[in-house]
Amino acid sequence: MCRYNRSLSSEREIRSLFENGAKNEGGVEFEKKLLLEGGAVYIADIYCGKELKLPKLVVPAKTVIELKRNLRYDTLYRCRELFERLKKNPDVEHFYVVCTERYFPGSYADKYKEGEFRVFSIDALFDGSSLPQDTDKTEDIEGLSEKKSPEKTKEELVNEARIVVLKQKSTLFLGAGVSIDAGLPSWDKLLKNMLEYGRRENLLEIDTDIDKVYPDIGKQCGNSSIIMARYIKTALKGLRAEDNFDKVIHHALYYNKRREGGKLVDAIAGAVKRHGRTHTNHGLESIITYNYDDFIEQKLDQLEVPNHAVLGSSRADADKFPICHVHGILTEHYYTQEGSKYEPELILSEDRYHEIYREAFHWSNVEQLHALNQTYCFFIGFSMTDPNLRRILDIAHGIGREKKKELPHYAFMRRETNNELSESQAKENIRIQKEILNNLGINVIWVDNFDEIPKLIDEIFK
């Protein structure tokens, strides 16, 4: 996290600077109303209709100036999104964000030193300095300021996590293990189900038993689940292959679902009901899920907890608990009479993964980076081996990852056993895995059985 503060600068000083610069040329307006498509109105903090020469900066004509005290990943993303909408207005060609404090690494800020969309520190307007330099900023929690010992017990980590929940903002990250616990298939079983259904419905050209053809397809795809999903997507027949792909996924996902739900879903929904306070400085701020199903939403509805699925650029209603589906959503009742208000935009095949991860400021990356940098996160149902997740964790840990400081996040993981290894080798493997995850900013709460995790969630979020 980076912090910069110029104590003498203020919005009043900036306005005065633009007023003085426009005395001769004019063309500067404050609280300028600009039309967006659909008839909506955006009010610009400052608008330069003509080129304006400031002492340290030349502002081109048709430029919107947005003033921000705190500039974070999500704020920057929304400003860029706003500019894309504003560009359709012939009166707007440039968008400049002026900030006092920013909370992301300089490598991101450097991307916006030039071009139509630019980011400046306040100092850049007064003395021509660059964007704020990176500085470390950590927020210690009372009782957690001492360096963590590598021998910290599970009980001690659980107690620390409980303090985090009571004193700070937190976020739940949900992986496939949550859905599997609720009766949905694993990745491997999902792909097999997709092939079986596609063959049965004559959507795929497969004339061999799935159990025989599946290993060969896996070998061709390097045993990568996302490459195999792309194989299935490419193999689908017909002009509506994309619609068929969603239908194949839906059937493969839900057709054999257990009706009783899962203990993890119950525990997570209970935690939200007790601690889902989005308007205070502590408690659960949101859920970020990698899963396609809407089981959490269904359970929260049963508990009468207002909730809203966040997809793409849509924002959660202010009075509803947000559940961000960063890989899309395909609700259980999408193809039934009950229907769904959410259109499936699934990230499953390799090509879709490439789309979101080649764009650093894709909304899903922004949501995750915001949570990792601004809240204490709990990872539930993850193996923590997904390279895309690890890349985001590495970025978020960023500047301070090599410095000895408080590790802010927690992951529940089962301790794997291998009877073919000696006890000392098994312990060494666990030690190395723990160290790697610590270097990604993760405290590991080890369990011997998955059934322990719902109880630990209840204990931490009681």
Describe the structure.
The protein is an alpha/beta fold. The protein folds into three domains: 11-126, Trna Endonuclease, Chain: A, domain 1 (3-Layer(aba) Sandwich), CATH 3.40.1350; 154-181 and 259-460, 3-Layer(aba) Sandwich (Rossmann fold), CATH 3.40.50.1220; 187-254. It is built from 17 helices and 14 strands. A seven-stranded parallel sheet has the order 10-11-9-8-12-13-14, with helices on both faces. Strands 1-2-5-6-7 form a five-stranded mixed sheet, sandwiched between helices. The protein has a two-stranded antiparallel sheet with strand order 3-4. A hairpin with a 5-residue loop joins strand 1 (28-35) and strand 2. Helix 7 packs across helix 10 (241-254), helix 11 (263-275) packs across helix 12 (295-302) and helix 11 runs parallel beside helix 17. The two termini are 30 Å apart. The model is unreliable at 1-9, 128-143, 145-149 and 399-405 (pLDDT under 50).
Notable traits:
462 residues, five-stranded mixed beta sheet, seven-stranded parallel beta sheet, alpha/beta, Rossmann fold, 3 domains, 18% strand, disordered N terminus, Trna Endonuclease, Chain: A, domain 1, 39% helix
Number of DSSP helical runs: 17
The largest sheet is: 7 strands, parallel
Q: State mean pLDDT (0 to 100 scale).
A: 80
Q: What Rg, in angstroms, do the CA atoms define?
A: 25 Å
- Give the number of domains: 3
The CATH architecture term of the largest domain is: 3-Layer(aba) Sandwich
Measured between the Cα atoms of the first and last residue, the distance is: 30 Å
- Estimate the global geometry from the Cα principal axes: globular
| Strand order, sheet with most strands | 10-11-9-8-12-13-14
Strand content: 15-25%
CATH superfamily of the largest domain: TPP-binding domain
CATH topology-level name of the largest domain: Rossmann fold
**Total beta strands:** 14
CATH class of the largest domain: Alpha Beta
**Helix fraction?**
25-40%
Structural class by helix and strand composition = alpha/beta
Low-confidence stretches: 1-9, 128-143, 145-149, 399-405
